[in-house]
Amino acid sequence: MARLTSHKKRKPSSRRWLERQINDPYVTRSKAEGMRSRAAYKLLEIDEKYGLLKQGLRVVDLGAAPGGWSQVAAKRVQSSDEAPRVVAIDYLEMDALAGVAFLQKDFLDEDAPDALKAALGGHKADLVLSDMAAPTTGHKPTDHLRIVALVETAAAFADEVLAPGGAFLAKVFRGGTEHTLLAELKKSYSKVVHVKPPASRSDSPETYLLATGFRGQPDEA
Asked: Residue 13 pLDDT more than 60?
């Protein structure tokens, strides 16, 4: 295992994070393969197992920057600049990606659903992705509540923009309070499962909720 040799003073937590990055095979692989982030491999592994990203599907990536998931999605659904089938949304800046339409805005903005549909040529999405995480406080119960609230908001957004039969994939942290979220998702989707891809570090409470078979809004039934 490589260790930092610099004498520059760092907090123990910062030192541990840097050493983990240096020794992380997914970080090395992402650099070698030109991926925007190591998180790209989480989506690749989930897709290998569940076959979410089929050619021609329309995909929305919430909180997309720096673009690792959008990069994977665009390639797998064979999106193009002329007819983008992947829309990335983030209030942060993001460098352009081939086949990805980028909206620099908060997905909570009132006009976000309409802007998204316009970017997809007037169509609804087949898959909504969210690898977002709320800012942490260091207090685990508070941080867990924040991420669950964020996922609930993302799920509500997905309800507005998904076509019937669509799917929703979102990051959560296990902590015992996501039962209400699961119950709500089961009302809207035919199947909901937890997914822990190999690229998600084993010592992390991070996991993913995958909801498939969106039943559609009441007026679409």
From this structure: no
